[in-house]
Amino acid sequence: MPLIALTGGIAAGKSTVASRLSELGAVVVDADQVVRDVQSVGSPVLDRIAEEFGDGILTVDGALDRAALGSLVFGDADRLAVLNAIVHPAVREESARRFGQAFAADPDAVVVYDVPLLVEARVDDPWELVVVAHAPAELREQRLVELRGMSPREAASRIGSQVPDDARLAIADVVIDTAGTLAQTRDQVDVLWEALPLRIAARRSR
Questions:
Q1: Among 157, 174, 198, 204, which is most buried by a count of CB atoms within 10 Å?
Q2: Annotated binding site for ATP, which residues?
Q3: Do the strands 27-30 and 129-134 form a parallel or antiparallel pair, or are they unpaired?
């Protein structure tokens, strides 16, 4: 029942790693999807967010307007802390439910939690392995500009708003270097997958 955390900075290729792990047989739980689900229309979490930040963060059909909410909390540590205090406990509970569901369906499943904010919110959870997708900040900035249409200033701001790369690398058991080609990244994931039983056994024997 290995439970693995997968993290990485924005545009670091984490989704590529998650996709390949899924192809190889892992059950991938996407933290971003969990967040969207716990904030769905009519959810207690969305009601609390609207109560705290006002109905201006809702669309006309009652869904969360992520851009409107983001404009209120981005760059404001206090407001972001309030939002996190509402969202994180619900995400923790729902993700744990999904882990349990996966292991109930297959006790030998390899469950991977694809989580951008591991360092910020979930670093102390009982992961059996922490995998970090990593590419230099300059390359990630270039990807944000070329692939996502951001301005260089916006790309630098998004990267700068996240924890430093050193903080992620410091907690890594495995680093997947995503600075090369897609094939090179996938090859590293394949090597990790083959080595998982030994890595997990070594971790459990400590």
A1: 174
A2: 11-16
A3: unpaired
Q: What is the 3-state secondary structure (H, E, C) of 65-93?
A: CHHHHHHHHCCCHHHHHHHHHHHHHHHHH
Phi first, then psi, for residue 140 (nearest 5°) are: -65, -35
Per-residue pLDDT reduced to its tens digit, 12-28: 999 999 999 999 999 99
**Ordered domains of the chain (ranges, CATH):** 1-26+110-199 (3.40.50.300), 34-96 (no CATH)
- Strand order in 111-114's β-sheet? 27-30, 111-114, 3-8, 129-134, 174-177
Q: What is the mean pLDDT of residues 58-78?
A: 90
Tell me which residue of 174, 143, 178 sits closest to 6, measured CA to CA: 174
Q: Please tell me whether residue 106 adopts helix, strand or coil conformation.
A: coil
Q: Which residues are part of a known binding site? A: 11-16
The pair of structure tokens assigned to 180 is: 């090369």
User: How far is residue 204's CA from residue 94's CA, in Å, rounded to a whole number?
Assistant: 26
Instruction: Look at the block and give the residue holding tokens 């967010």.
Output: 49
